[in-house]
Amino acid sequence: MFYDLNVPYSPDDPEAPHTLNFLAELGYTTVALSQTLTGKLPSSVSPPPLPPNPPKTLQLLTRLNLTLSDPAQNQRLNNLTQAYDIVALRPTNEKTLLNACTNLECDVISLDLSVRLPFHFKFKMLSAAISRGIRLEICYGPGVTGSGLDARRNLIGNAMSLIRATRGGRGIIVSSEARRALSLRAPWDVINLTCVWGLSQERGKEAICEEARKVTALARLKRTSWRGIVDIVHGGEKAKHEKPIAKQKGQAQSTASTEPGTITDTLKRKASLGSESVAEEAEKPLSKREMKRRAKKARLGSQGEDAS
């Protein structure tokens, strides 16, 4: 199963159906349609309606990208987690990146690696986010087509720095952030691209398969449980089609009194059935091993009597 968790989407975009069909042809199975917000959030935020008649092989998710420029910015992340399937943060400076890695509740930290970043990645900062279940995202779309040599150079250099800071690419996912179908790449092309950045082929495949699946699973746990720890499961409730135990017992007694020879009668004759089974076991022929044991016992007994 291949995942692409960052596909920009708007309901009035005429290219959206073509992009989804091309993703299905390339072999992707789960796609997150993203909406980007910058600055202060409006009073009510809700995901846009999903496109009609999507490919049947695609599972569509909703995602919100928040651009952080101020560490004191209140984003109401708990409410957004209930509205969207995935909540991603995009820090623009080192202070907001530190706040997102250590304090803020989100599912993904997505960095724009196609620009020159004013800070360096640190292992202690990034490992704090990975230990909290937050994944770091690399988007290859802005640095692949139509962005110029500077964007491609920045993408390769920043991706290599991020992989080096995470000690081999742990907790990294790769998405497209492609606004058109021409910017998309097949899953194995993306894996080859990660090898250019410094990831191994196994890590590259995990970035678009296993690590991306963990993002969706952990995000689902956050929505359906309390901090991903306590969950409400079905158990102990009486189903509508089940009858109370007392009524079942009363019905069993009434059937036993009206219909002789039923299951209750056989249960009452349990002792007689046990004696018959014992008699049957006694009539069974002895095995050769049992016959030898009894003969040896009788021989030893006769020797003891002669000695006395």
From TrEMBL:
Entry annotated with the keyword tRNA processing: yes
Annotated signal sequence range: none
Cellular-component GO terms for this entry: nucleolar ribonuclease P complex
GO molecular function, one term: RNA binding
Composition bias, Basic residues: 290-299
SUPFAM superfamilies (UniProt xref): PHP domain-like
Keywords: tRNA processing
Region (Disordered): 237-308
InterPro entries referenced in this protein's UniProt entry, alphabetically: Pol/histidinol_Pase-like, RNase_P_p30
GO biological processes: tRNA processing
Localisation per UniProt entry: Nucleus
Amino acid composition bias (Polar residues), ranges on this chain: 250-265
Similarity annotation: Belongs to the eukaryotic/archaeal RNase P protein component 3 family.
Protein name listed in UniProt: RNase P subunit p30
Organism in which the protein naturally occurs: Penicillium canariense
